[in-house]
Amino acid sequence: METTTSATITVTVNGTTYEREVEARKLLIHFLRDDLDLTGSHVGCDTGNCGACSAIVDGTLVKTCMMLAVQADGSTVETVEGLADGDRLTKLQQAFSDHHALQCGYCTPGMLMSATALLRANPHPSEDEIRKGLQGNICRCTGYWNIVEAVKAASE
Amino acid sequence: MLLREVEYARPGTLEEAVALLAADDGARALAGGQTLVNVMKARAASPDALIDLNRIEELKGIELGADGTLEIGAMTTYSELVASSEARARPILGEVCAQIADVQVRNRGTLGGNVCSNDPTNHLPPLLVAVGAEFVVRGADGERTVPADEFFLGVYMTAVGPGEVLTRIRVPAGRGDGFASVTLGADGTCISNAAASVEDGVRVALGCVDAVPVLLRPASAGADAVRAAVREAGLEPPSDVHASAEYRTHLAEVLAVRAVDQASQRRS
């Protein structure tokens, strides 16, 4: 086995399978945004703290700025673009809208993916569990109150 | 952030990983990447090659032996450990892993990566020293076992040498354990921490106060004995924006007592 600086990877994102040549140094977030033009996932801090780049890879919530694109070879990735069915928002997305769970919206894609992962694992979380489930996502606008309310509403 | 150009390989077996690491002085093992990828962005580390351990099955899994010994694969993530019924044999492990960073980091970050990076503020080095863990290291010449008090050598340095891979962490049976920390926000970086075990005498390991965990063996689990042991250690912790050396020394004493108290309550 030898090392290589680039590789061809096959990744299924939101139901569509893509085959692309990528450099080994490319982060998954840049692959999603720059190569696939899926700009819903955001780059916030680029240091693994803010969670704006969160996506679900093979059923597991990750920060895509701390994973290489080549590591996603053969994986199934879910991003915020995959949540709604056309104009039909998910219950969680509708709850974010109804409860004013965003102001500038920059953190929202990551918040939605983290909350989606949380509700799949735990459909009826307590407020503490919601806060713990979202601790990897930073919001500088809302003070989190309405985000927690929205997740609570979506879980009812 | 664009990383510096880097070579990459994703071996499927440990033999291949060891061979790849041995073949290139600039090669580094990529575990969960929750530290390494970020230090590569900052150019604080610039490995020439990343040997990705994520698809090596023999580095995963947790086994509980008949004598209660846990064998934890180095590539076990914090989330996998928290969810493991076997790991509940030594409950402190899951409790501490559940307070590392956040969901996403716990889903990717691994026990092996945590100890091999040996950041002095990490949770697991002092915990694994306190519980008397052993580390199984594989290289081209075979396998060796390193006790926890010899595993951590310096800041970011461990007994895992070039061309070697940490394969398993072995934790003996026991329940009389404690952990206490002061962190930056809930589940944040530790400013000071202490782990304790009262299974085999009293063992206290202090984190964040030196390059490696400081192992103390107080004469008893009493608060006075624990405080005396911390004072006798003559700690000279670093000062930084989060805490002065003096405050860290104070915290070390307080947290050591709390950790031993928790351990004693669970033992009895």
Notes on the protein architecture:
The complex is a heterodimer of chains A (156) and B (268). Chain A has 156 residues and is of the alpha+beta class. Chain A has helices spanning 28-35, 91-98, 108-121, 127-133, 145-154, and strands spanning 6-13, 16-23, 54-57, 60-63, 76-78. Chain A has five helices and five strands, in the order E-E-H-E-E-E-H-H-H-H. In chain A, helix 2 packs antiparallel against helix 5 (145-154). The termini of chain A are far apart. Chain B is α+β, with helices and mostly antiparallel strands. Chain B has ten helices and 14 strands. Chain B has helices at residues 14-23, 36-41, 78-83, 92-97, 103-108, 111-117, 124-130, 148-151, 223-232, 245-267, and strands spanning 7-9, 27-30, 49-52, 62-64, 70-73, 134-139, 142-147, 152-154, 157-158, 165-171, 177-183, 190-197, 203-207, 214-216. The longest helix of chain B is centred in the last third of the chain and has 23 residues, at 245-267. The radius of gyration of chain B is 18 Å and the shape is globular. The N and C termini of chain B lie far apart (52 Å). The interface between A and B is large, with 36 and 36 residues.
Brief synopsis:
Chain A is of the alpha+beta class. Chain A has helices at residues 28-35, 91-98, 108-121, 127-133, 145-154; strands at residues 6-13, 16-23, 54-57, 60-63, 76-78. The model of chain A has no long low-confidence stretch (mean pLDDT 97).
